[in-house]
Fold this sequence. Notes:
By secondary structure, this protein is of the alpha+beta class. The chain has 3 helices and 6 strands. It has a 3-stranded antiparallel beta sheet with strand order 2-1-3. A 3-stranded antiparallel beta sheet has the order 4-5-6. The protein starts with 6 loop residues before the first helix and ends with a helix.
Amino acid sequence: MTTPVNFNTAKLLEKKDIIIETSTVYSEHDKTRVYDESDIREGLIIKAPTIAEVVTWIYEKHGIWLFPEWQFSRKMWLYTIQDIASYDNTIKIQEQNYKDVGEVEFNSPTKAYEAAIEYYLTELI
């Protein structure tokens, strides 16, 4: 996905000292808009990598693959965090293979990706 991660995820990446080179950033003064790094003249900036860049970084550094899945029967998106080294070893989340994120919050693959990234960064590394 070429969508930049949201501001909170960008801050979490920075807090974890995860540096993913990208030219897009958030300004501390505007947490809703992504800027080109050259547009920021003053103030703190936070790197805003795309969802795809973060998912790829997690895979390359940790051998973990994050992906959303459409749950047809429940009409909502879920996510899976898969340990690629052991394909049968899906990392359990709340004693399930999926993190159910709800119809309102996770009504898109983008929201499911963001939730998976945030969960991985806060709970697993």
